[in-house]
Amino acid sequence: MNNPEGGTPFTNPEGPNNQPGQPQPQRKVSEQFNNLLKDERVQQAQAVGKQYWSFYLRALTRPYSTMREIPVAHFMNSLITMGLTALLTALYFLTLFIKWDVSAIFGPGFLKPLLLTAVGLAVACGATYAVLRLEKVSFDFKLLITRMGTLLVPAVALLVLAILTLLVSLYSFSTTLVALSFLFVFISMNTALFQYPLNTGGSRGIDTLYPIAIANIVTGYIFYKLITSVIAGAAFGMLSNSFKF
């Protein structure tokens, strides 16, 4: 193609920026994506994800049997389950705040339920540990947490369903699912406790029933504070919106 000004003919009709030897933008993006996939940390994350998904499906279909057979090697998977439980609880309340059009949603609608759920799970683990220590039972702490996290797998599924049903405005049903997910915290506590030989210390000043009851009451109080404080925050936000002109 000739240059209309009489100069040297164009060798690249696409323009000077697209030289034949230069990689196209799409090729650059593709190469960067391939390099990212080859990154060691990304590959490790993919391996952890695949391992957790296999663990999750097994525990979801047979939670009690899996809990009885699970080795300490799945300790990290149980921690991931507990983390997902706290995160999904926070996402549920954040979604609720958004649907209710509550102002200042991030603090009371996400951070507070996230922290309180994490504290509630930590208290559940600590209370279970305390009861077993009081009972003078020999146990592996990591195995105890692994068992409790395995039994929490159904709670994760319930919370996902709760968020989905909340998105389609099925408020009562989604609330029921959240309550059931919290119930699994107590189920995991007590089921894990009764995997150990309790009340083997002979005559003592306090019966086994009372430490177990105290552990459940303390954990229940944390989740009670979670629900009441989040509802109070939502009510305050809605009230503040109503006074705006």
Automatic annotation (TrEMBL):
UniProt keyword Transmembrane, yes or no: yes
Which residues are listed as membrane-spanning?
Answer: 75-98, 110-132, 144-171, 177-196, 208-239
Q: Where does the record place Low complexity bias?
A: 15-26
Q: Which keywords accompany this UniProt record?
A: Membrane, Transmembrane, Transmembrane helix
* Transmembrane helix keyword on record: yes
Which top-level group of life is the source organism from? Bacteria
Q: Where is this region: Disordered?
A: 1-29
Recorded protein name is Integral membrane protein
Q: Which organism's genome codes for this protein? A: Paenibacillus silagei
